[in-house]
């Protein structure tokens, strides 16, 4: 059985794997066509991508990224629990505690080719042992999803406890139910 890989910045994958982030914000890649991006899979492996500019676009301590390797290690698995479209900047701001991206980057993505973003609230699991793949040309390009080959057996361990995960879910849901006037006062 083939699995889906979701291409995401290595630093964001690491933040998800540490439990510092519980959502994925996405506008979409060039290769996703005129219909744009959608969370096409309910479960997927996080497929870390490397480029050095991401260091300046996250709110975590700067870390040195390794040079692009010839392999990709899949360390984390995601299950989508909720998907929403962010249609107001106030909603985007309300989600800041649930991710590590800078406000400037989120604003840039939000306004790119029209206002809005897709957001998924995810439960993250550590893949044990991690799965290392040869980085193939078919994994490249500006797109969010890649088809992965059949993978050997592995175990999954939840990153956050059930209680911590549920607290994050409440925060996620609350971000969409606050009046915009309340969210504006938080700036």
Would you write up a description of this structure?
With 187 residues, this protein is α+β, with helices and mostly antiparallel strands. 24% of the residues lie in helices and 32% in strands. It is built from 5 helices and 7 strands. Strands 1, 2, 3, 4, 5, 6 and 7 form a 7-stranded mixed sheet that branches. It is globular. The N and C termini lie far apart (47 Å).
Q: Looking at the chains present, what oligomeric state does this protein adopt? A: single chain
Compute the separation of the termini in Å. Answer: 47 Å
Q: Structural class of the helix and strand makeup?
A: alpha+beta
Low-confidence stretches: 181-187
Radius of gyration: 16 Å
Mean pLDDT: 85
Main sheet? 7 strands, mixed
Helix and strand run: EHEEEHHEEEHH
Number of helices: 5
Number of strands: 7
What percent strand? 25-35%
Helix content: 10-25%
The backbone outline, from C-alpha atoms, is globular
């Amino acid at each position: 059985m083939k699995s889906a890989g979701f291409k995401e910045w290595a630093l964001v994958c690491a933040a998800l794997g540490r439990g510092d982030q519980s959502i994925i914000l996405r506008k979409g890649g060039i290769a996703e066509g005129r219909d744009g991006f959608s969370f096409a899979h309910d479960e997927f492996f996080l497929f870390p991508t490397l480029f050095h500019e991401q260091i300046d676009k996250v709110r975590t301590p700067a870390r040195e990224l390794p040079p692009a390797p010839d392999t990709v290690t899949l360390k984390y698995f995601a299950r989508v629990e909720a998907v929403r479209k962010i249609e107001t900047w106030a909603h985007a701001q309300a989600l800041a505690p649930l991710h590590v991206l800078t406000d400037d980057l989120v604003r840039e993505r939000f306004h790119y080719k029209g206002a809005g973003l897709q957001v998924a609230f995810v439960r993250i699991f550590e893949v044990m042992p991690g799965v290392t793949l040869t980085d193939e040309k078919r994994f490249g390009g500006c797109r969010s999803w890649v088809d992965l080959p059949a993978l050997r057996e592995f175990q999954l361990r939840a990153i956050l406890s059930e209680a911590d995960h549920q607290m994050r879910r409440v925060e996620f849901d609350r971000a969409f139910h606050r009046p915009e006037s309340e969210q504006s006062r938080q700036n």
